[in-house]
Automatic annotation (TrEMBL):
This is DUF3037 domain-containing protein. It comes from Anditalea andensis.
């Protein structure tokens, strides 16, 4: 699998073509990373007029929507058109505006959060902002691929828990999987490279569902059940702090597990007599 790095620069002067590198795009056929440096952007803005600054702000932020767009089935073809070396090479040769795409460069190391950060510091010469996020191969994408395992055919996948089923939520919320074997077993993957407010919302919702389901099991003489929240490695300092807070919460009602331990869920379901939660008396 070929990894591609694309420096993103800003032209300070169309006459001299002076450039300052402010960001970096990195991608392969499964994943994409993009961010820009606020520190470098501040330097660039000191050379530009207001109209150029406004355009630049919009351009750099809109790229995050384009390059890091979550891959839904009907969008994969669109992403393939944008994130391929040939198209980026075209942009690098013919982008004549204020934003300049550099020549695509090969990247031999495995492309992940850590390697992207190292490459960013090397190419940009500064720390990235807060946009860093996997695109095509986000945690959600990886989880969706794992849910194709035959083990999950025995349980419900992408099952919506409704407010009528548990207290503490006010709208339906989907779990990645949920089954029942004497008691419920449910899991959800949460991407810790996202914005902290989004992560917190997902965690608080899962906590309410886990505690709500555990409470209802008493009505059916069941044990409380098992609820697992899977996470990936956080990138920003704020995300690390949030993860630490969740770890220290002794009353969260669920187990916090690294995403690479998702195999445990497969083994647990394969070795247990699990059935679909939706077909159980508990759900009905």
């Amino acid at each position: 699998m070929k990894n591609v790095l694309v420096p993103i620069s800003v032209r300070l002067n169309n006459l001299t073509d002076d450039l300052i590198t402010v960001g970096l795009l990195a991608f392969n056929e499964n994943s994409s990373f993009y961010d820009f440096s606020y520190e470098k952007l501040k330097i660039v803005k000191s050379f530009l007029d207001k109209n150029s600054i406004d355009f630049l702000d919009d351009a750099l932020k809109s790229m995050s929507t384009t390059f890091l767009k979550e891959a839904k089935i009907n969008e994969i073809a669109y992403l393939d058109k944008i994130l391929n070396e040939k198209y980026i090479d075209y942009l690098s040769k013919y982008s004549n505006g204020i934003v300049k795409f550099g020549e695509p460069k090969g990247f031999a190391t495995e492309l992940n959060n850590e390697s992207y950060l190292k490459a960013f510091r090397s190419f940009v010469g500064a720390e990235p902002g807060k946009i860093i996020s996997k695109g095509i191969s986000s945690l959600r994408y990886e989880m969706n691929e794992i849910l194709k395992n035959d083990a999950f055919k025995n349980v419900d996948v992408k099952y919506s828990i409704k407010p009528t089923m548990v207290s503490g939520i006010y709208a339906p919320h989907k779990l990645d999987f949920i089954g029942i074997n004497g008691s419920p077993y449910a899991g959800l993957a949460v991407d810790f490279t996202k914005d902290v407010s989004e992560i917190d919302k997902n965690i608080v919702t899962f906590r309410a569902i886990a505690l709500g389901l555990a409470s209802r099991t008493k009505d059916y003489d069941m044990s409380p059940g098992k609820y697992e929240l899977f996470f990936n490695e956080p990138v920003s300092k704020e995300n690390v702090i949030l993860l630490d807070r969740v770890r220290k919460d002794k009353h969260k009602g669920f187990e916090l597990l690294e995403f690479d331990k998702i195999d445990r869920a497969i083994i647990k379901i394969e070795n247990g007599t699990y059935r679909k939660f939706s077909e159980s008396e508990f759900a009905l």
